[in-house]
Design goal:
Helix content is 78%, strand content 0%. By secondary structure, the chain is mainly α. The chain crosses the membrane at residues 6-24, 31-53, 99-118, 139-158, 178-198, 210-235.
Length: 263
C-alpha cells in the first residue's frame, strides 16, 4: 500500500495539531486519538483504532514520568506505528507497537532540544512587552508551540512518505524475531499498568485489584464489564468519602462549639 502526497500532508497537519495539544493541554497527544485521525486519512480506521487502543493501554503507564524524568511520547507510535499497522497486512498491532517504540524515545529528546533553544526567548519577550511591542511579544511567547508544530508536521509527513522504506526494513526481519517482537508488544500494556501501580498503589486499593483479577481470571468478564465494575467502585468511594468527610466535620463542629468565620 502506498500513500499520496496529499495524505502525507494531511498526516503532517494532523500530527502538528495533536502534538500542539501537549502545549494547549487538550489531551490530543494520545496514541488512540492520533491513530484515529491517521486511520481516517489513510482509509483504514478499523486497523488504526485497534493499534491505537493497544498503544494507549501501554502509554497509560508510560505517560507518567516519575520525578523529573521525561516519559516516552505517544506521538512516535501514534504516527509511525499506525502507518506500519495499516500498510503491512501481516503485521500485528503488538509488533507494530514494539517496532515503533524507539520513536517514542526519540521524541522527548526533540522536546528537550526545543525547550533548550527557546529558553532565552523569555527575556526577549519580557523586553518586547516593556517596549509595548505586543505582536513581537506574542510571537516570542509562542516559539515553543511553533517549534512543536513544525517538528510534528515534518515527522508525520516524512513517516508517511517513508512507507516503502519501513516495509523493506520489516521484510528483512526474520519470522522468529517478529514473533518475539509480537510477544514483547503484548507485554507492553502490562508493563505500563505495572508502572502506574508502582507509583499509585496503596493498601486501600488492594481489594479493587483482587476484584479485577477475579472478574477477568475466573468470571471471564470482558473489558467493558470490568470498566463498569471499576465505575461502581469509583462512585462508591466518591460518595461515601464525601459522606464521611461531612460526618467528621459535624463531629468536630459539635465538639468545638461550631465553626465561625473559618476559625
Amino acid at each position: 500500500m502506498t500513500f499520496t502526497i496529499w495524505q502525507a500532508l494531511l498526516v503532517g497537519l494532523w500530527a502538528a495539531f495533536c502534538f500542539a495539544g501537549q502545549i494547549w493541554g487538550i489531551y490530543t497527544n494520545r496514541a488512540l486519538f492520533i491513530a484515529f485521525g491517521v486511520g481516517i486519512i489513510l482509509g483504514d480506521l478499523r486497523t488504526a483504532v485497534i493499534f491505537g487502543a493497544t498503544a494507549e493501554l501501554a502509554f497509560m503507564g508510560f505517560g507518567v514520568g516519575p520525578g523529573g524524568s521525561t516519559p516516552p511520547n505517544p506521538l512516535g507510535p501514534g504516527i509511525v506505528g499506525t502507518i506500519m499497522a495499516i500498510s503491512m497486512d501481516k503485521l500485528s498491532p503488538s509488533a507494530a507497537l514494539t517496532l515503533s517504540y524507539p520513536f517514542a524515545i526519540i521524541v522527548p529528546f526533540v522536546i528537550t532540544f526545543i525547550f533548550t533553544i527557546n529558553s532565552s526567548s523569555m527575556e526577549t519577550a519580557k523586553k518586547a512587552i516593556m517596549e509595548g511591542k505586543y505582536r513581537k511579544y506574542k510571537w516570542l511567547s509562542n516559539l515553543t508551540l511553533y517549534g512543536f508544530m513544525i517538528f510534528a508536521f515534518i515527522f508525520g509527513f516524512a513517516a508517511t512518505e517513508s512507507t516503502s522504506a519501513l516495509r523493506a526494513f520489516i521484510k528483512i526481519i526474520p519470522q522468529w524475531l517478529m514473533n518475539g517482537l509480537t510477544v514483547a508488544g503484548g507485554l507492553l500494556p502490562a508493563v505500563g499498568f505495572a508502572l502506574i501501580l508502582s507509583t499509585m498503589v496503596k493498601k486501600e486499593y488492594i481489594p479493587a485489584i483482587i476484584l479485577g483479577y477475579v472478574c477477568v481470571a475466573y468470571l471471564q468478564m470482558p473489558v467493558i464489564g470490568l470498566a463498569f465494575v471499576g465505575a461502581v467502585i469509583a462512585f462508591n468511594n466518591y460518595f461515601n468519602g464525601k459522606k464521611s468527610s461531612k460526618d467528621n466535620d459535624s463531629d468536630q463542629g459539635g465538639n468545638d462549639g461550631g465553626i465561625e468565620d473559618g476559625i
